[in-house]
């Protein structure tokens, strides 16, 4: 029996457990970290468009001015996948702090 350490590709945590199998037989894993943005992941995706690094490259190429078809050709994924990645709202690993300022004007004494 061989022990293979599994690390979450999103939060890089090693607190990972098995979470069943896909319909095609691929093992699923669940991240136990509470701050992780994605809980379930695979070690080896069959679809290149699902790999987190490819998804980051799609966004980087779009920010640098590459077109959808050009990005799809370079990364060897479907143009539909490129559009889907760009339309999806970004998921941040750390929550952005929101602060509200309330401006209260004190009544002036010289009226």
Characterize this entry briefly.
The protein has 3 helices and 3 strands, in the order E-E-E-H-H-H. It is of the alpha+beta class and 111 residues long. The chain has 2 domains: 1-44, no CATH class; 46-89.
What does this structure look like?
By secondary structure, the protein is α+β, with helices and mostly antiparallel strands. It folds into 2 domains: 1-44, no CATH class; 46-89. The chain is 26% helix and 13% strand. It has a 3-stranded antiparallel sheet with strand order 1-2-3, with no helix packed on it. Strand 2 (27-31) and strand 3 (40-42) form a beta hairpin. Helix 1 packs antiparallel against helix 2 and helix 2 packs across helix 3. It is flat. The chain starts with 15 loop residues before the first strand and ends in a 24-residue tail after the last helix.
